[in-house]
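Raw record, unedited: Monovalent cation/H+ antiporter subunit D family protein
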Amino acid sequence: MSAQHAILAALVLPLVGALGIALAARISANLREAVTLATAAALAVVVWGLLPELMAGERPALRLAEIVPGIEIALRVEPLGMLFAALASGLWIINSIYSIGYMRGNREAKQTRFYIFFAIAIAAAMGIAFAGNLITLFLFYEILTLSTYPLVSHKGDANTVRSARVYLGVLLTTSIGLLLPAIVWTYYVAGTGDFVAGGILAGKIEGPAIGLLLGLFVFGVGKAAIMPMHRWLPAAMVAPTPVSALLHAVAVVKAGVFTIVKIIIYLFGVDFLFAAPSSGWLLYAAAFTIIAASVVALRQQNLKRLLAYSTIAQLSYVVMATAILKPLAEIGAATHMVAHAFGKITLFFAAGAIYVAAKKTELQQLRGIGRRMPWTMTAFTIGALSMIGVPPTGGFVSKWYILAGAFQADNYIAIGTIIASTVLNAAYFLPIVYMAWFSRESTPPQRDHGEAPFSMVLALTVTAALTIALFLFNGPVLELERQLVEGTL
């Protein structure tokens, strides 16, 4: 298969899979889930098959259609997009295994619709990852928003629908009201919206307008959850846990920070952007979001809401690292996308397993649960340690590179933010770990529950193992991102 055919297959396979899921569901649930797993595996093979060519220095591209002269739907594979696509396609397999146990164990309704829209969301994520210009990225960005709305509103009760409307409203308002004008402005001043190493805006815009355009992009990409555009993320916690994993680890928030990093590197160009005084606010906005979200997380008593605010903080690590403008920090930003994906999906998988097996959602209900669910809580502990940045987890690697870049730049705001947020992360994660393993249950359980269904435990065990593997075997990720740094800095 040629690289161009592989790029097209990465978009088409999930959509064909969605159709196959709908047809298979008419026969049996087992066949429906087999089609889901087969599609996810096929996508991973196709996407990961592009890696050798990329590592050899090739940048395969594909033009799909020309909308009007000079504006086309185009795809291109580059290191940052490859990282996002490989991450999303690989985690789709694990999330699908987990989803089978969760949806059956929790006796969820509308399971076929769930798998169909999940597949469509993955197709949109592939389009975002391989977008060759702003128009293509915006198209798939909006498809991702619309395809995840039925997933967030899955339960269908009044509270869920209300929260899902907040999710949809914030993301559509920011993208149409801020991101789209930024795209139009870019095409107007630069004559193109293509993603080019080194950027396209140098000499085309100057002064305060640079900071204003950057603001439209950053706050227009609501999926990155930079405060105050973060309210959609806690609202979306009404969704089933596999959807929360999709939102936090597989596609949605990763699409947000990926888009911001891609815009900074391939539209503005890091040298041009951070030579402009009007762009300096970005680092402070990211630092504020990290600390503020960590403080809010510290006050939460519901486990999924705590994890939601933790995600808001962790996402801004990526934005802040990009704003430091040092090679080590740029590598740390990309690596943190992977570390956060593995660690946070493990935490959400564990939260969902606890709910299915024990129907517990609040922190105080987790006392002593490690004795009854040792596999789940071991995985949770590993995920929590990665969020804090403790070795031997992937979170330590990414924070190490971000901190090293901050020291390179003598950026004491970034250094102080990383240290303070690490302390806050420990302050809200370690008490949970302690309660689970060392506290006695405050009330006897209504039933002597054990672990969640096997497929759920298998999935969270695999992602916990990946969190540790990233610490031990991070060479391929670092090499991929060195290509990005060498081509843009």
